[in-house]
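Subject: two folds for Thursday's group meeting

Dear M.,

Sorry for the delay on this. The cluster queue was jammed most of the week, so I only got both jobs back this morning. I'm pasting them in the order they finished. Each block is the input sequence followed by the predicted structure tokens. Could you check whether the formatting survives your parser before we put anything on slides? The first protein is the one we discussed after the seminar.
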Amino acid sequence: MTTTKKPAFIAYAVTGEGKDAFWTRIGSVWPHNHSEGFSIELNALPANGRIVLMPPKAIESTEGAEVAR
């Protein structure tokens, strides 16, 4: 998906829990232009099946990087 709009959410694969959780950005989510719903573009899939969606502003400083939260 090619768009100039900022995504509504950033998709992260999260392993671990709490302070030991490791967040890896794996994609982005955009709202549809003319209907309800969202389009999800994933660059990877998590091995554990856990995907967390967060607003871009919530984790701007970590965008595009692997981080421990």
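Second protein, same layout:
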Amino acid sequence: MKATLKINKNQIIDKIDNRIYGSFIEHLGRAVYGGIYEPTHNEADEYGFRKDVLKLIKELNVPIVRYPGGNFVSGYNWEDGIGDKSKRPSKMELAWLSVETNQVGIDEFQEWAKRANTEVMMAVNLGTRGPDEARNCIEYCNSETNTYYANLRRKNGFEKPFNIKLWCLGNEMDGDWQICHKTAEEYGRIATETAKVLKWVDPSIELVACGSSDPNMPTFGEWERTVLDHTYDYVDYLSLHCYYGNKANDTLNFLARAEDMDKFIKTTAAICDEIKAKKNSDKTVNLSFDEWNIWYRTKDEEKTAPRWKIAPPLLEEIFNFEDALLVGGMLMTLQNNCDRVKIACLAQLVNVIAPIMTEDNGDAWVQTIFYPFMYASLYGRGTTLKATVESEKYTSSEGWQVPYLITSVVDNKERGELVIFAENRSLDNEMSLDVSINGYDNLIPIEHIQLYCDDLKSINTKDKAPVIPTNQKPSNTPTLKKHSWNMLRYKYGER
């Protein structure tokens, strides 16, 4: 099979906001307790954070982490997780039917973020709570005033503000599974008033309003229009959430979900622009794809799990090689939509539908999806170029014509590198890739990373890792193995 990739230095999509390589930690299952935090572990630091887990997270170079949820946030009292740990209440947590000990809260998490070399993306509760609790929370986190909540932070041992600059106005409020689910009209009103008080406390922050929690929601489209009618003047981003699965065991159709993600992004961006035109606004609301991943094997697991346990193992999805292929394709989709998607969060980071897994008081290891995310985060920084792809195609279940080659091209001027991410979705044939690149001098291939496994269902465990990247010989005429994900790096000299 042959494919052609044409690249021109002057055909630019946009500069990538590094925050598209963000992730997510929710108080759910073992994401926090037994994941990032385990004071009894022999790798625990003075705060109780696992250093072996931090090491793996640093390898991903995650610039931002959304916290503390997720469904969890819609019933969360942020005040429960600050101050003296011995006085913090244990509570029934209704989103995941667990017990929350509140031994980790914003005090600890912002310290963890420093150790992980990342920033906090904070969510406020617009389920059981509202603008008053949100404005108190941001005063606690960001204010230097001689006022109650800023002084409470100082009393708790933090003289300097946390300076959290990105805030989510609730979570998935369109879903009836959400604690205190709201109509679009109800959510639009409370989100607007919360946005106003948050920016009055700290005008330097950016805000994310809730879009649809899935493109298949019956309210998709009208939800966005109603919410943006209320919030457009006050928010900076609209969120998108989506998870994909392969219950039908149809790999080709599964890998085509990257095209569905692309459609979801473009449709949502068009709705944002529709409201922009309606309001005759000069402002552009961009997108925060702040939950995305593969998730289907453990869906609804909390409904049958034992109730009211502390950090029960929930949603511990075990990813195989074909999952890594789709994650690689979805990352390319985010890169190719960087003109509108400025923030994205792989959901989640540790144990819960995550690239990193741990044992309680044991080892930490990485799943198959760790690798495409790591290489995209490390080398996919710069400007995305609009590439022309000529490739054979197949037909998805929706009747779409899907190219076997999916790709993204990133010009990293700081490193003087052109980076091509390329995936051959054919299950049977290798692909000879003809790369035509214009506008660069002295282009030299320096690296070809390949992620391939003959068995699409192979998984990595703490004892065995059949799915790992390998180095191939760099070439100007690379060959892509059947069902493989690849990163091709070229060094260049400017004209």
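Two things I noticed about the second structure. Residues 17-379 form a domain with the TIM Barrel fold (CATH 3.20.20.80). The longest helix spans residues 257-278.

Cheers,
T.
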